[in-house]
Each structure stands twice: as structure tokens, then as C-alpha cells.
């Protein structure tokens, strides 16, 4: 067959044109992403704790809208797979900035266990060098401005009827009273200065310690006194009585927006509520099988009461609880190579939730490293030991440490130049919390649950997340009272009464977030079942996990596309 030189030339020109268009499109996307990443919004040296003003949020919304318009001109078919994912995620991220301003969420910087002043303890870390010491001192000295900004927002929220419900503030006084100390050295914020870096000169140490006491005496303790006065004389008297976010201005629309954001899908409150009821029924049947297995003579409620009250299920000291958590962590570490091709370089520690926030804090949480000199931390709440059963500790550890949050978040951060910077620190609850709950399921395959009670603990944690679908939508869309929410959790889970109350307060104060766990986990398990079925004996669990984790944090829709591509490639290899 002969080829016309003219046709060959046209083909070359056509291919080069296509390549040139793809290059230009890729370059334009990179330019926009760089612009977003370089966008400061405020002077971080002037505001080391961040800028929190209405004008700042308005400017950020305008910037996001303008960038979204630019992104609409990008032809995604000219992009690589990773670039297409970056495009979708950047749009998702920018839309959230727009919605945050649109629904005036900035006027409500409070949650039952996180937010505003409760965010300050996260700044307290070990200090590795003189630079970190100075940066930490700057943050302590910035607290007055930080408090000024937030009180202004909260006061505007009160005027507009955008507040948290009164019901979540029982015991809230501990969040500020515990920080009002007479001696600066007794302050939680002084603790990093008790173990200063060894490289500091004697003169530097003396200067730092003096500056630390001054900062706490003048800029930390007085601000917590202001916070106390504000809550007790202004905010708590004007907080709303209703608990559902649908009761605030534009609340119903806002709640659907939160469900869309936290699930990354388009599910209505009613659809999520029904999924929850079906999951609760399924898991309840599994729990009853275990009750029969241990030959317990009594009802489901009596078995739950037995778990809540029998001393064998509780640690005798905070240190014993932490030792058990560390022991479980090391057991899981040994199993990881069987399930994952790539493991994170970053280590993690196991530490107690700081006393400053423990009373209103959840049972455990993963805390990411702030920089390369620090590990991640799996925080275990040692407050109120009778509410911290040992039989749920394997599930908690798998979720918060490995193979859960530490593994996923650290690998995300270690993807390097293969993804843009904004994606290395990006977090979506449906993906991250879905992975955490899936990790509890995966821990069963790792042999982590060694007794029927620990298996029951695994199920009660899964049931807890299923109940969230019912309770969150019940509170914010279906008119449930707090008592209904508490009763639903009490009847269907083995959570302690303390945990149930702190959890319900959290759902009330943080609409929509709680449903992300179960929705994300269900999607991952659905995709795994699909891959196992279609690939048969060629299915490799390590390959599957590589696909889920390879692009870092993604929406559930993107995750499904990745897995479908993996299945198709697997089928082609088989043929």
C-alpha cells in the first residue's frame, strides 16, 4: 500500500495540532491552579492564626467565582487523567468557598467540640527548633486579634438568627474556665516551653521563657476571660431553642447543600434516612448473632447494659488505655504489607486527648503532622474512663491510625509532584471518613478482632455510623428532638451514655458531616465487591487499595471512575 506524501503531511500537522492544543490546555490549567495555590488572601505574618472577617470571606468568594469562570473554558478532553481529576477537585473546592459565603456559615464558627477557641489547642505542639518557638509565640500573641474577629462574627450571627442551639452547651464552661489560670506555667499553652529544643543558647532560653509567661499572662488568659464573659452574658442567652439547621434562615436549602458537600453525591435527606434505616436493621441482626454466640441469657438491651457496666471491659487507668491502644497499633502495623503496596514514610504516635478539650471531645481522633519535623498523632480520649470501653478500641485504632486516617492522609501528602499542591492537603469527609470506616471492616480480615466482644465492638461502631444517617437527617430535616436522637443511639448501639450525648451534640452543631462516614464506606465496599466479582481470581486486594489511594483525596464519583477503569484494564489483561 502506498501513502500519499500530502496525506502523510496532513496527518503529521493534524497530530501536532492536537498535541499543541493539549499542551496549551494543560498549561492553562496549571496556571490557574498555581494562581489558586499562590493566592494568600491575607498576610500570614500579620495574622498568624488566620484572618476571620466578613470582608475576607466576601473577597474569597469573589476570587472563587472568577476562578470558576476561568475553569469553564478548559477543555477537559485535552487533559490527562490526573489533570482531569485536578480540574474537578478544584471546581469542588472553589464552589465550597462560594457556598460558605453565600449561606453565611462564617457567622457560626462554633461546634460542640471544635471551632473558634476550641481550635486553639491544636496549635500546641512540641517545638523542634528556634524558628518554631518564635512562630508559636507569635500565635499566642495573636490570640487577642483572633478573638476580636470571631466575637464580631458571632455577634452578627446573633442579630441574623444564625446561632448554635442552646442544648449543645451543657458543660461548655469547661472549654474556657480550664484555661483561666493564675500562674502562666499552669496553662496548657505553656506546656511546649517545658521541653525547649536543645539547640537554644542559655540567653535564648531565658528570653523565650520570659516571653512565654508574658504572652500567657497578657494575651492568653485575659482572652479566655473575655470568651467566658461573652458566652455567659451574650451568646448563651440568645442561642436558639430549635436544634435542626432547617429552622434558621435558608436552613433547609443549606442542609441539602451540606449533604451534597459532605457526601460528594446528590442524595436527598429522605434517601439518606432510608439507607440508614436499612443499614441499622442489617447490622442489628449481626449483633444479635454475637449475643447468641457468647450464650448471653437476656435481651438485647440487657446485653448492652452488661457491656456498659461490667468492669472487665474498661481500663483501670489512663495509661493502661493508652498502652492497649499502642499495642493494637503495632499489631496492625505488622499486617499492612499484606494489604498495601505502598506505606507512608511518616510515623505516628499515640497520645491522650489534651485535658483542655477532653470533656466535650469525641472518643478519639487523628491529628496530622504540621510539618516534616513532627509525626502524626492518634489521640485517645482518656477522660471519663467508664465511658471508654476496651472492646471498641481495635475499631477506633484501625479507623484513626492505620490502615485508616494516618495511612491515607500521610500517603496523600507524600504523592509529591504527581499531583498539585492543593490536592496534597485536600480532605473530603466522604473519602477520608469513608476510608476510615472501611478500615474498621478491613481490620477483620487482618485478624484484629480476637474475641466476640471485639467483633461486637466493631459492629457497634459500624452501627453508630449507620445510626448517624438516621439521626442527622432526623434532626435537620425531619423535625426530631434531641431526646429522639439520643434514644435511637441508646437502643441501637453499645456506646456509653456520655459518648451518645457528646455525639448527638456534635450532629446538632455540624449538619451533614456525620453522614459522610457510612456513605463513603458503602461506596468503597460496593466498588470492591464489583471488582471482586468481575475480576474473579485475578482480583488483588493490594492493587485495589492502590487504585483507591493512588490519586489521593477524591470525590466518590471520581473514585468510582477510577475503579471502573481498573476493572476494564484487568479484563483486557485476562483476554
Give a verbal description of the structure.
This protein folds into three domains: 5-102; 116-241, no CATH class; 253-522, no CATH class. Helix content is 61%, strand content 2%. The protein contains 21 helices and three strands. The chain has a three-stranded mixed beta sheet with strand order 1-3-2. It is globular, with a radius of gyration of 26 Å.
Helix count equals 21
What's the count of strands?
Answer: 3
Helix amount? 55-70%
Rounded Rg = 26 Å
Number of domains: 3
End-to-end distance: 31 Å
Task: Characterize the quaternary organization of these chains.
Answer: single chain
**Which outline best applies?**
globular
Structural class: mainly alpha
Largest sheet: 3 strands, mixed
Report the average pLDDT across residues. Answer: 94
The largest beta-sheet arranges its strands as: 1-3-2
**Beta-strand percentage range:** under 5%
> Any low-confidence stretches, pLDDT <50, length ≥5?
none
Reading the helices and strands in chain order gives HHHHHHHHHHHEEEHHHHHHHHHH
Amino acid at each position: 500500500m502506498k501513502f500519499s506524501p500530502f496525506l502523510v503531511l496532513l496527518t503529521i500537522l493534524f497530530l501536532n495540532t492536537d498535541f499543541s492544543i493539549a499542551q496549551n490546555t494543560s498549561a492553562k490549567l496549571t496556571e490557574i491552579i498555581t494562581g489558586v495555590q499562590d493566592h494568600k488572601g491575607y498576610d500570614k505574618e500579620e495574622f498568624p492564626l488566620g484572618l476571620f472577617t466578613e470582608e475576607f470571606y466576601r473577597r474569597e468568594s469573589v476570587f472563587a467565582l472568577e476562578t470558576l469562570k476561568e475553569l469553564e473554558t478548559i477543555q477537559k478532553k485535552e487533559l490527562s487523567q490526573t489533570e482531569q481529576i485536578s480540574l474537578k477537585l478544584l471546581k469542588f473546592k472553589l464552589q465550597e468557598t462560594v457556598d460558605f459565603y453565600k449561606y453565611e456559615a462564617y457567622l457560626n464558627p462554633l461546634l460542640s467540640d471544635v471551632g473558634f477557641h476550641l481550635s486553639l489547642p491544636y496549635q500546641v505542639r512540641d517545638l523542634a527548633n528556634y524558628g518554631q518557638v518564635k512562630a508559636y509565640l507569635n500565635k499566642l500573641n495573636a490570640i487577642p486579634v483572633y478573638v476580636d474577629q470571631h466575637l464580631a462574627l458571632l455577634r452578627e450571627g446573633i442579630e441574623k438568627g444564625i446561632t448554635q442551639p442552646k442544648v449543645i452547651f451543657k458543660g461548655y464552661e469547661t472549654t474556657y474556665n480550664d484555661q483561666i489560670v493564675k500562674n502562666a506555667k499552669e496553662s496548657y499553652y505553656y506546656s511546649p516551653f517545658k521541653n525547649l529544643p536543645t539547640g537554644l543558647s542559655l540567653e535564648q532560653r531565658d528570653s523565650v521563657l520570659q516571653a512565654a509567661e508574658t504572652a500567657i499572662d497578657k494575651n492568653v488568659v485575659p482572652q479566655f476571660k473575655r470568651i467566658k464573659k461573652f458566652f455567659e452574658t451574650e451568646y448563651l442567652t440568645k442561642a436558639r431553642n430549635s436544634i435542626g439547621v432547617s429552622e434558621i434562615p435558608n436552613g433547609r436549602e443549606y442542609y441539602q447543600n451540606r449533604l451534597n458537600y459532605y457526601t460528594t453525591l446528590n442524595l436527598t435527606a429522605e434517601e439518606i434516612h432510608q439507607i440508614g434505616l436499612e443499614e441499622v436493621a442489617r447490622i442489628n441482626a449481626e449483633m444479635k448473632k454475637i449475643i447468641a454466640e457468647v450464650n448471653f441469657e437476656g435481651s438485647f438491651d440487657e446485653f448492652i447494659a452488661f457491656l456498659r457496666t461490667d468492669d472487665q471491659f474498661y481500663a483501670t487507668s489512663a495509661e493502661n488505655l493508652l498502652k492497649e491502644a499502642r499495642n493494637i497499633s503495632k499489631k496492625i502495623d505488622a499486617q499492612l504489607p499484606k494489604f498495601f503496596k505502598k506505606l507512608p514514610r511518616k510515623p505516628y504516635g499515640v497520645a491522650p486527648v489534651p485535658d483542655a478539650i477532653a470533656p466535650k471531645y469525641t472518643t478519639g481522633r487523628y491529628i496530622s503532622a504540621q510539618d516534616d519535623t513532627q509525626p502524626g498523632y492518634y489521640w485517645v480520649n482518656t477522660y471519663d474512663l467508664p465511658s471508654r470501653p476496651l472492646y471498641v478500641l481495635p475499631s477506633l485504632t484501625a479507623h484513626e491510625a492505620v490502615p485508616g486516617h494516618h495511612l491515607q492522609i500521610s500517603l496523600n501528602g507524600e504523592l509529591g509532584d504527581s499531583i498539585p499542591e492543593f490536592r496534597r492537603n485536600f480532605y473530603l469527609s466522604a473519602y477520608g471518613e469513608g476510608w476510615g470506616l472501611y478500615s474498621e471492616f478491613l481490620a477483620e480480615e487482618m485478624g484484629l478482632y480476637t474475641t466476640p466482644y471485639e467483633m461486637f465492638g466493631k459492629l457497634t461502631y459500624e452501627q453508630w455510623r449507620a445510626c448517624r444517617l438516621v439521626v442527622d437527617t432526623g434532626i435537620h430535616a425531619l423535625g426530631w428532638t434531641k431526646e429522639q436522637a439520643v434514644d435511637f443511639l441508646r437502643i441501637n448501639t453499645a456506646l456509653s451514655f456520655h459518648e451518645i450525648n457528646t455525639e448527638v451534640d456534635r450532629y446538632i452543631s455540624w449538619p451533614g458531616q456525620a453522614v459522610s462516614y457510612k456513605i463513603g464506606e458503602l461506596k468503597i465496599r460496593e466498588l470492591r465487591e464489583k471488582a471482586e466479582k468481575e475480576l474473579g481470581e485475578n482480583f488483588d486486594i493490594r492493587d485495589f487499595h492502590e487504585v483507591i489511594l493512588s490519586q489521593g483525596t477524591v470525590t466518590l464519583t471520581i473514585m468510582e471512575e477510577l475503579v471502573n477503569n481498573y476493572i476494564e484494564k484487568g479484563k483486557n489483561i485476562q483476554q
